[in-house]
Give the backbone structure.
Amino acid sequence: MKTKSYIPYLFIAPAVILFSVFMLYPIISSFILSFQTGQGAALTFVGLDNYKRLLSDEIFHTALKNTFILLVIQVPIMVLLALVLASLLNSALLRMKGFFRVTFFLPAVTSLVAYSIIFSIMLMNDGVVNQLLTSLGFKAIPWLNDPFWAKASLIIAMTWRWVGYNMVIYLAGLQNIPEELYEAASMDGASRIRQFFFITIPQLKPVILFTVVLSTIGTLQLFDEPFVLTKGGPSDATLTIGMYLYQTGFRYFDFGYASTIAYVIVILIGIMTFIQFKITGDQE
């Protein structure tokens, strides 16, 4: 039987049309918009003025600094905790593995807004956390009203939600590590800690790179947690690039400048991903 040459294209046409309308067109339109300024339909072409404006925009610099502080601190903590938990839950000596795996993964399937609201209630001045601290004889901490503790609150909340997600990915990777490597290391007198650093981590290198890249992208696009928890405050201490993009576009309706910020995020993601691949020496 002979198939008409155009038949395969008919099958992929719906996917191509949907991708073009809802993905390709907005990407190209946003890129063109980044070279324009104005509101509504009254847009004028300004060339690279929006990009030059970023260089002297102090609020953008603050948002960029806050985002990278969260990235540098939160991602390593989350990755290390996920690795440790995955190694513990992969142990043959542990019982009720399914229960613990589901328990740690459960935060990853909760709503971003819902869990952020819960954390904002818990971390209020008279919230559950401060009540517990004062009952133990410690001073109450201004979690959401102090620049340092506001960042710490975001790091704690993000770590709580995403550790289990990365843990499941590492668990899948651990299943592919030959048990003979650990047996040989044990016979040579290597402790569990040495096995973790010299067998587990090197064997999981591609998986770790994958999760770090995903976490980096997510942190550079961070919006929900600071928007709900701290509103970017106090004094822009937790304002992220994603939140500044939202404020520029949907509070001040400067969509041209907002598109410029969006493409700067894309460039930053590309640079950070390239650096991470180079640092790990991954050639795949």
Observations:
- The chain has a mean pLDDT of 89.
- The beta strands are 36-39, 42-45.
